[in-house]
Amino acid sequence: MAEHALVRAGLRALLGATPGLAVIAEAADIDVAASLAASVQPDVLLLDAPSAKDLTRAVASLRVAAPRACVLCLGDDEHGVGTIRCIPRDAGVAELCSALADVLGERCGACLLRSRCAAATREIALSPRERQVAIHVAAGLASKQIAAVLGIGLRTVNTYRESLARKLGASSAAVLTRYVLEHGLDART
């Protein structure tokens, strides 16, 4: 929930560019935010509350509407609402990513913003065959070519690619290539 349309648009673009994350609702005021939260039951609620009164009211409304959601607040914890994590308004992408990584855990593993993220890098266990397939995808080979190089069936290659997509949030060859490069995977690993 953020009052300003420009702030919401920026956050929506930032989060929408991250594999595994989706903005499923947004609101300009607390009442609409609570109503939407009750209907969609999000994992995380990110809100911007300008005053202590609004922040206290927002947290109470949102906790009732979506009791299992993690609540993050843009703003300093000067209002004494210590039960939620506050991200300073002047924070950068790294601080936002770090806060999201803390509450989302493994789902931040394939974040496109990871290179600017202060959150600890999480290692995701890949089988030797998944590593081989990932390396060949990063090298630009098509599934048929990978099958021929590795001496396995096309369906098997596609199964490994689906597994990689699930584990890494790598919905495209570009995201998978980035993962391979960031983790220094090569044919010898």
Order of helices and strands: HHEHEEHHHHH
| Gyration radius, in Å | 20 Å
Overall outline = elongated
Helix % is 40-55%
Largest sheet: 3 strands, parallel
| Low-confidence runs of at least 5 consecutive residues | 116-122
Structural commentary:
The chain is mainly alpha-helical. Helices cover 49% and strands 7% of the residues. The protein is built from eight helices and three strands; from the N terminus they run H-H-E-H-E-E-H-H-H-H-H. Strands 1-2-3 form a three-stranded parallel sheet, sandwiched between helices. Helix 3 links the parallel strand 1 (44-48) and strand 2. Helix 2 runs parallel beside helix 3 (52-65). The protein starts with a helix and ends in a 7-residue tail after the last helix. Residues 116-122 have low confidence and may be disordered.
Short description:
49% of the residues lie in helices and 7% in strands.
Q: Secondary structure elements and their pairing?
A:
Layout: H1 5-16, H2 30-40, E1 44-48, H3 52-65, E2 70-74, E3 85-87, H4 93-104, H5 128-138, H6 143-150, H7 154-168, H8 173-182
Helix pairs in contact: 2-3, 5-7, 5-8, 6-7
